[in-house]
Write a structure and sequence with these properties.
homodimer; 337 residues; alpha/beta; 434 Repressor (Amino-terminal Domain); Rossmann fold; 3 domains; 6-stranded parallel beta sheet; 6-stranded mixed beta sheet; DNA-binding; transcription (chains A, B); Lambda_DNA-bd_dom_sf (chains A, B); transcription regulation (chains A, B); DNA-binding (chains A, B)
DNA sequence: CTGTTAGCGCTTTCAC
DNA sequence: GTGAAAGCGCTAACAG
């Protein structure tokens, strides 16, 4: 059925070894033979078998990408960036999604899924357990994280503390003093520290400004709109005065808070300022002020580094901080009064 | 470095063939030997080489998934569903994203990316060109589309015409007579008919109700929020009276229209009703009335069928219509007056 | 129930 | 510059 390298060799009247060299652009092949081989291969519609060359070389030209979800803003865009550079370099992208099972027994990622199957692994914003990390390092394939720090391997991400601080400084600069917070990452996310970093920056900024951190002005979500609504409800329903501003751990949560505020007739930004982190696709249309980051670029940068490492550039994968930027839109203004 | 089947065979004092049978759960192996092999394999940390077995069997236990984007609602969720059933069945998911290059020369999907690499291909809501379709069918691997009809292969999707009609009937039932439309798919999407089907249903419903289809009440977008805003602006800015309702080709566009309406002080649903299709994650929080579909289920269903087909159940992949449902929330009401 | 023996299709020394 | 031949690790007859 499939035409093999032998067919090409026969047709071109050369050995399989020569066909192999010619097709891969290796030296030690005369231009005449190379041309001949190329034309015969094209004519026959020859496509090399990845399994065969994988077996022979030990490399699969496939990169694994491990994600907690594919249907969430950050991951979708990061994967898109990764896919693009992989494609440009003739690499395949093997996707492993935990589908939300960030922890627990339903979580099904194991070393065996990866062994002898991929040349390197990109881990997206994921807290790997000690055991998983151990297994992964044991496979000895290059590893790189994207979207947040992961112990034991380098990563590509923004300085979450600084980003959150920039958001807080914006609010503080506007004159807000009663600032609430929708935090991300409800529970134990193991080694994944992003939500905690952002929340820590909130507390630090408040204290630095000499402001009180009121527990009833902090609510936890999981980075989604739905949870943003839930967290906002919790804060809005709390007895006592409301904050004049909300710093949200993600744009989705910020948007959720905006929806809930609108539902209650709380005017934004007149009565309440809202700022998020991400610059989600919905943020510009909704007029949300945010700290923008570009997961697509993160993916590209990470994949590029990993490819360089595979190409032999030892040390090509290093921790690298990506830029972020405050984008002021219409959800923030000085506090009322 | 890697421990091979021979190592296991040696340690277990059996032949490689026996190890192979034992590990794959084939018959004709005594329980005693099977147990022995299993324990030795575990002890040695043996993991079979996909390349080797792929070479030997001609099957890779990998399914390809071709998508126009991974960072869009429908696709992200569909991929999640696909990934899950693949994982449950020991299959790998090789992702091919066109990254938005739905057409044009930057589009890089070719037969060679697929040949000898995957056992089957899932094509997500994508209009393949005649040439691509020809190449794909030429590879003779099972094909199945998800999210919309693709000529030449079966598919899993909702009846878009009926879904759009349900949305229109809701509006009509509420008493609306001036209904505008945000259509999807701006330009030539080749063989991808979903946007056109929805728009056709709009026209048909209008005519059936004896209502005028006004060109200035129809604006085209590309299914995204940003385009929804743009299209809404176009309609809102048109001279003459405004429609009292908007039927949008996707929830993202509907949400964009809602943002724009809010910006202009057009009250929803008092002055304007908006209905979409999808039940996007943002729809419930935003209170958008919509026709809900479940891409995650579509993905699961499609992957399951393809796997069955691969397992030998000829004809397992057939056209199958998935359910949809009107979800009434707070963006629709009877027209003013 | 188990072992032997060919490959699967490609890469890679090592000769020539 | 080119060819011969030995694998890479596993599966699949075919014997026994």
């Amino acid at each position: 059925m499939g035409v093999s390298i032998d067919d090409v060799a026969a047709q071109a009247h050369v050995s399989t070894a020569t066909v192999s060299r010619a097709l891969r652009g290796l030296p030690r092949v005369s231009e005449a033979t190379r041309a001949k081989v190329l034309s015969v291969a094209a004519e026959l519609g020859y496509v090399p078998s990845p399994s065969a060359s994988g077996l022979a070389t030990g490399r699969t030209r496939t990169m694994g990408v491990l994600v907690p979800f594919v249907d969430r803003w950050y991951f979708g865009h990061a994967i898109e960036g990764i896919d693009q550079v992989l494609r440009e370099n003739g690499y395949n992208l093997l996707l492993f999604s935990l589908g939300g099972y960030v922890h627990g027994q339903k979580r099904s990622f194991t070393e065996s899924m990866v062994r002898k199957q991929i040349d390197a692994l990109l881990v997206l914003s994921l807290g790997l357990s000690e055991e998983e990390l151990r297994q992964l390092h044991h496979t000895e394939i290059p590893l790189l994280s994207v979207g947040g720090p992961v112990v034991g391997c380098s990563g590509v991400y923004i300085d979450d503390g600084a980003a959150a601080t920039a958001a807080m400084d914006h609010l503080l600069g506007l004159g807000h003093r009663r600032i609430g917070h929708l935090s991300g990452g409800v529970q134990d996310e193991r080694n994944f520290k992003v939500p905690a970093l952002r929340t820590l920056a909130y507390r630090t900024a408040m204290e630095r400004a000499g402001l009180e951190v009121r527990p009833d002005w902090i609510a936890a979500g999981d980075f989604t709109v739905a949870e943003g609504v839930r967290a906002a409800v919790q804060i809005f329903d709390a007895p006592g005065e409301l904050p004049t501003a909300l710093f949200c751990g993600s744009d989705e949560m910020a948007l959720g808070a905006m929806f809930e505020a609108q539902r209650r007739g709380i005017r934004i930004p007149e009565e309440l300022s809202v700022v998020g982190i991400d610059d989600h696709d919905f943020s510009a249309p909704a007029g949300l002020t945010t700290i923008a980051q570009k997961p697509w670029h993160h993916g590209r940068a990470a994949a590029t580094m990993l490819l360089a490492e595979l190409a032999g550039a030892t040390g090509a994968t290093r921790d690298t901080l990506m830029p972020f930027e405050l984008v002021v839109r219409h959800s923030t203004a000085p506090p009322p009064g």
